[in-house]
From TrEMBL:
Sequence ranges assigned to domain Sulfatase N-terminal in this UniProt record: 27-337
Keywords: Calcium, Hydrolase, Metal-binding, Signal
GO molecular function: arylsulfatase activity; metal ion binding
Cofactor(s) annotated in UniProt: Ca(2+)
Homology family: Belongs to the sulfatase family.
InterPro entries recorded: Alkaline_phosphatase_core_sf, Sulfatase, Sulfatase_CS, Sulfatase_N
CDD domains for the chain: ARS_like
PANTHER family according to UniProt: ARYLSULFATASE FAMILY MEMBER, ARYLSULFATASE G
Protein name per the record: Sulfatase
Keyword Calcium: yes
Extent of the signal sequence: 1-23
Length: 462
């Protein structure tokens, strides 16, 4: 802890030296991290059911990534990855507690114990930005501790340890809005975020992380009829959920208008993504397989784009695979903050965003030594009907993706360029590729000290 204090004091001294000359040039930072929004749940990714004109407009101002990933397939570990820029074995947040979900008799192994609260020992993005002259605001779902103010935020709007609101309509019961509100929760949080923007006078970081569109599915009565009249599209046919997406888009429109009003838009780095895939059964992401909680593409591939006028060309697209771990180093580069002393697993995407490179070769990893039960055993696209995921790891390198499962040492190998649906397991016909990826994965386990579950569960019934 002492080393961290000394390091932060050094950062603050450097910040004081350079702030006066750089403050006018430092871009504002906004991360829009939507909850449970699927890859195809927005218009700019092709949905013909959900209507998201404001998000679509914002995406047109920058670069869209078609192979954008979350660091995990459910909320807390994905958010921990974004805030630390580190793979899950380094921070230990593997799931939403507990790690032993589903019936014990169906679990062959004792899962690794999950970390419920992100350790403050880590370097957290808002802390680093605050130490470098930014005023920081969290708005919405936090999910990593009881209070985001202890992690470098100056302002907290509705954030606590809760993973979902008990109600989107007041009283919200487990979410507190200072001063109270009689509005739908998504509206109340944006109203407070806009008030923050009305008063801010120096470079700011806004972590806008709405509870929407996580369950409970509580529609907006005035919007639902619009979607009741629409034809279903590739598994998207829930008017209540669609009204939540629609209302979220309306709120993002209010954010855009405020940025324009205050002349912030042209000097603000905006990053849009989701913390994990859409909830299968509520929405679907065809042709992707499965949804939230699964490490098939439907659970981890996200709508993802970056906007920064003058640096990132409008209406551009990239197929480079990226992860939300890349947000931390990318933000620091554009903020002019030296990241060389930080231990970040993500990479700055500036060379891709500014079209200096077309290829960004590296492997991406996921590690989930836990169990996550299925929502509906009669309707899912998981490896088996009982669990969205069983303990395992995944690696993607280039177009190839390998799944490894600890219970039975099972391996699945897919070429995503030919089989984005992950239906044709090539492990028997591409042994060299399987061996290559498995070797890289095992080396990564050692490098990150990834905990591997191996203890048999005495209550398991085969």
């Amino acid at each position: 802890m002492m080393n961290k204090v000394v390091f932060r004091f050094g950062l603050m001294l450097l910040s004081l030296i350079f702030q006066s000359s750089c403050s006018q040039e430092s871009p504002n930072i906004i991360i829009i991290n939507v909850d449970d929004l699927g890859w195809k749940d927005v218009g700019f990714m092709g949905s013909e059911y959900y209507e998201t004109p404001n998000i679509d407009y914002l995406s047109s101002l920058g670069m869209v990534f078609t192979n954008g990933y979350a660091a995990a397939s459910n909320c807390a570990p994905s958010r921990a990855g974004l805030m630390t820029g580190q793979w899950s074995p380094r921070h230990g947040v593997f799931t939403v507690s507990p790690s032993a979900r589903g019936r014990s008799e169906d679990r062959k192994l004792i899962p690794i114990k999950n970390t419920h609260t992100l350790s403050p020992e880590h370097d957290i993005l808002p802390e680093v930005l605050k130490d470098n002259g930014y005023v920081t605001c969290h708005a919405g779902k936090w999910h990593l501790s009881d209070n985001p103010l202890a992690y470098g935020f100056d302002v907290n709007i509705g954030g606590n340890h809760a993973g979902l609101p008990k109600s989107y309509y007041p009283p919200y019961k487990n979410v507190t809005i200072e001063g109270g509100s009689d509005k739908y929760l998504t509206d109340a949080i944006m109203e407070k975020a806009i008030k923050f923007l009305d008063t801010v006078q120096k470079p700011f970081f806004l972590n806008y992380s709405p509870y929407a569109v996580h369950v409970p599915i509580m529609g907006i009565d005035s919007i639902i009829p619009i979607y009741e009249k629409k034809s279903p599209w590739k598994g998207q046919a829930n008017p209540e959920y669609a009204s939540m997406v629609d209302n979220l888009d309306r709120n993002i429109g209010l954010l855009i208008n405020k940025l324009k009003e205050r002349a912030f838009l042209d000097n603000t780095l905006i990053i849009f993504t989701s913390d994990n895939g859409g909830l299968y059964g509520i929405t679907k992401q065809k042709p992707l397989r499965a949804g939230k909680g699964s490490y098939y593409e439907g659970g981890i591939r996200e709508p993802f784009f970056f906007v920064l006028n003058g640096k990132i060309k409008a209406n551009t697209k990239s197929d480079v695979p990226i992860t939300n771990l890349d947000i931390f180093p990318t933000v620091l580069q554009y903020a002019g903050v030296d990241a060389s002393t930080l231990h970040l697993d993500g990479h700055s995407l500036a060379p891709v965003l500014e079209e200096e490179v077309q290829v960004f070769e590296r492997a991406l990893f996921w590690h989930f030594p836990v169990y996550l039960q299925a929502y509906n055993v009669n309707d899912n696209e998981n490896r088996d009907s009982l669990f969205r995921t069983r303990p395992g790891s995944v690696i993607r390198k280039g177009e190839w993706k390998l799944h490894y499962y600890f219970e039975d040492e099972g391996v699945e190998l897919y070429n995503l360029s030919e089989d984005i649906e992950e239906r044709n397991n090539l492990v028997a016909t591409h042994l060299e590729k399987k061996d290559e990826l498995l070797r890289l994965l095992k080396n990564w386990w050692q490098e990150t000290k990834a905990p591997i579950p191996s203890t048999l569960n005495p209550e398991f019934r085969d």
